[in-house]
Structure formats: C-alpha cells, structure tokens
C-alpha cells in the first residue's frame, strides 16, 4: 500500500489517531478510483460526489488538498492497475458532537482487472440476506465509511461462490449490489433503479446511462422488481473499478451475456474498452 496524508507520501497505511470519529464511529465518506499507469479515471466525478456528501453530513473536506494528495499518489504508483481510495472523515467530536477538525488521506493498492474471459463469461450473483438501511435518510446516497451492511452482503456472496450480492426489499424491489449498481435490458430499453433513497448514485452508473444514450439506446430510471429478471434480455453490474460486468446467474436463474453490455463497455473508453471480450 501507498498513502498520502497532508502531502506526505508513505509506504503502508497512514497513521491515524485513535480518537478520530471517522475511526470510532465510521463517520467518514470515501471514493474508490480506478487507476491505470498513473492516470486516475473519472476523478472529477468522484471529487464532486464526496464533496457534496461531506457538505450534507458536516464532515470537513478540503478539495484542493485532496487533489494535491491524489496527484502526489498517482505520480508514485508502481503498479499497472491500482485501486485508489480517497477518505474524508471527522476528527474528535466535541460535546455538541460536531467534529473538531477532520481526517483526510488518499491510499492505493494494486488491482487486478477482469480478464476478457471474465467479461465474456459474466458473473454470478445472489440476493443479499440483509436489507439496505433506513429509506428516509440521505445516507444511502453517500459512499459512507460505515460499510457494515454492504460488507455483510458481499461476504455472503463470496461464501456462496458468487461475485456480488443484490439488495432486495421485502416486496421484491431490486435496489443495487453491495459494491455496484444493477441494470436490466427489457423490451429494448435499458432500465435501472432510480438513485436516491436506497440506491447510491454510482459514478459508473451515470457514465453507463450517458454511453447508452449516445448509442441510441432508450434508458429509464424506475423501480424494478425481481420478477422481471426472467424476462430480461441482459442484466449487468456497474462499478468504477470494473466498469461493467454481465450477470449470467442470480441465485438459480441463468441469464445470457448479450451484445448490448459489450457495446456499452466499449463506449465507456479506457481503461474498460481495451479489455473488451
């Protein structure tokens, strides 16, 4: 791991004081950014989202410092591909529970992207055993450091031989994956659950919607339900690290990996198009 905190580049994780609310209570936000070589992809989108989330949640954030730290980190990356994380969180809390300063750093680890074979074969998913958090809060719209619900769901997926776990409401409404957004192709229209309430406005999600429209494919953001899955011509996941991956199985339901996902992945451009299957 490499990390940068306040302009200082270090090998290994940054040193964090034990009284930080970001550490004690998960009062933090983060962004995960794909790097290839020393280039950071969709950086402004990530910075805009974390800046907005920090403003909403009262977490201190210095965008210029973040840009400087990320540039310093990117210039030192030794790996062909990397997962770069930007973290912003609260420092110690005062008696009024307001943060007394903030915690901010960037870090990176090597990343192995999906191979053309992975992309062609697609991935398996399961339904998450737990529910998403309170629908009346703004928290699901932010990429929070308190990631317990998503970690629990992803561990369940991995333990059951799957790549991802998809959150579903008791009435069957599909929400999102633990690390991804979900799309269905149905009757020639690309559908995805609306962002907000229980769905994170993913960076890759927005890019995929834009790419689909540029390809002339109708798109619609609307509530989706699990009983639509057998009717879907294609299902795929989106995420800033892997871009787009077809889903070829959800629980016992088998699904085809079709041409629309391949076309959209190509339209996303580097670093995703050059791994086209």
TrEMBL record:
InterPro entries: Aminotrans_IV (IPR001544), Aminotrans_IV_CS (IPR018300), Aminotransferase-like (IPR036038), BCAT-like_C (IPR043132), BCAT-like_N (IPR043131), Class-IV_PLP-Dep_Aminotrnsfr (IPR050571). Its EC number is 2.6.1.42. GO terms for biological process: amino acid biosynthetic process; carboxylic acid biosynthetic process. One of its GO terms (molecular function) is branched-chain-amino-acid transaminase activity. Its cofactor is pyridoxal 5'-phosphate. Pathway: Amino-acid biosynthesis; L-leucine biosynthesis; L-leucine from 3-methyl-2-oxobutanoate: step 4/4; Amino-acid biosynthesis; L-isoleucine biosynthesis; L-isoleucine from 2-oxobutanoate: step 4/4; Amino-acid biosynthesis; L-valine biosynthesis; L-valine from pyruvate: step 4/4. Belongs to the class-IV pyridoxal-phosphate-dependent aminotransferase family. Pfam families: Aminotran_4. SUPFAM superfamilies: D-aminoacid aminotransferase-like PLP-dependent enzymes (SSF56752). It comes from the Bacteria. It catalyses: L-isoleucine + 2-oxoglutarate = (S)-3-methyl-2-oxopentanoate + L-glutamate; L-valine + 2-oxoglutarate = 3-methyl-2-oxobutanoate + L-glutamate; L-leucine + 2-oxoglutarate = 4-methyl-2-oxopentanoate + L-glutamate. This is branched-chain-amino-acid transaminase. The keyword Transferase applies. It is an enzyme of class 2 (transferase). Keywords: Aminotransferase, Lyase, Pyridoxal phosphate, Transferase. The keyword Nucleus does not apply.
């Amino acid at each position: 791991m490499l990390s940068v905190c306040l302009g200082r580049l270090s090998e290994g994780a940054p040193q964090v004081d034990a009284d930080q609310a970001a550490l004690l209570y998960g009062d933090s936000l983060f962004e995960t950014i794909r790097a290839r070589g020393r280039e950071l992809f969709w950086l402004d989108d990530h910075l805009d989202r974390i800046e907005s989330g920090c403003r909403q949640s009262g977490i201190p954030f210095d965008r210029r410092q973040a840009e400087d730290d990320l540039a310093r980190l990117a210039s030192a990356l030794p790996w062909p591909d990397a997962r770069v994380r930007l973290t912003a969180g609260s420092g110690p809390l005062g008696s009024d529970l307001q943060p007394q300063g903030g915690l901010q750093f960037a870090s990176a680890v090597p990343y192995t992207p999906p191979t053309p074979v992975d992309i062609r074969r697609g991935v398996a998913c399961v339904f998450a055993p737990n529910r998403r958090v309170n629908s009346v809060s703004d928290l699901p719209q932010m990429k929070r450091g308190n990631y317990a619900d998503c970690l629990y769901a992803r561990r369940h997926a991995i333990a059951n031989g799957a790549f991802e776990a998809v959150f579903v409401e008791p009435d069957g409404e599909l929400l999102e994956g633990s690390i991804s957004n979900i799309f269905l192709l149905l009757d020639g229209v690309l559908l995805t659950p609306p962002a907000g309430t229980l769905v994170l406005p993913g960076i890759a999600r927005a890019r995929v919607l834009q790419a689909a429209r540029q390809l002339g494919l109708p798109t619609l953001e609307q509530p989706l339900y699990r009983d639509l899955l057998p009717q879907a011509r294609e299902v795929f996941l989106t995420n800033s690290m892997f871009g787009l991956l077809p889903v070829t199985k959800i629980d016992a339901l088998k699904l085809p990996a079709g041409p629309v996902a391949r076309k959209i992945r190509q339209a996303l451009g580097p670093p995703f198009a050059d791994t086209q299957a």
